[in-house]
């Protein structure tokens, strides 16, 4: 009887000591410390400019943070976290060449420089460049596929930035 009692107590202690915690939103934030974030505009500083890209990228990034965290997104001011930067690259390059020496695939690449500022913890700041691309058939005009490609690229860039900053991967 006493042996059974100690076995049950031991199992209870072990069960309480071993706990597994999952965060399904991907964010690794302590919401007791971090409550607000500001996301500055990301002006286009690339040689080739597609004006709708700035708004598309900023919306994707802001929406992702709003959906996957409990942070209050603020326009500016004294916030716990800050994201700022610029779109530094928007380029086209041929990828696959046909037997007639013309490109059959073209790659659209977008590069973004991001500064992540943590106003609550020293040493957590980051200044990094992210890049993403999509290939499309050279038979298609860029003007026909540009909006869709920019949306896809902006989503991928937002994922990369989120994981490197708030996701704490």
Describe the structure.
There is one protein chain. Helix 2 (52-68) runs parallel beside helix 3 (142-164). Strands 2-1-3-4-5 form a 5-stranded mixed beta sheet, with helices on one face. It contains 3 helices and 5 strands. It is extended and about 85 Å long. It has helices at 2-17, 52-68, 142-164, and strands spanning 36-39, 72-74, 81-97, 103-118, 126-137. By secondary structure, the protein is of the alpha/beta class. It is 33% helix and 31% strand. Strand 3 and strand 4 (103-118) form a beta hairpin.
Features:
about 170 residues, alpha/beta, five-stranded mixed sheet, 3 helices, 5 strands, about 30% strand
**What percent of residues are in strands?**
25-35%
Distance between the termini: 49 Å
Shape: extended
Tally of strands: 5
What's the alpha carbon Rg, rounded to whole Å? 23 Å
Helix and strand composition category:
alpha/beta
For the biggest β-sheet, the strand order reads 2-1-3-4-5
Say what oligomer this is: single chain
Sequence of secondary-structure elements: HEHEEEEH
Number of helices: 3
Low-confidence stretches: 17-25
Quick one: biggest sheet? 5 strands, mixed
Helix content: 25-40%
Q: Kindly state the mean pLDDT as a whole number?
A: 87
Which SSEs are present, and which pair or pack?
Blueprint: H1 2-17, E1 36-39, H2 52-68, E2 72-74, E3 81-97, E4 103-118, E5 126-137, H3 142-164
Parallel strand pairs: 1-2, 1-3
Antiparallel strand pairs: 3-4, 4-5
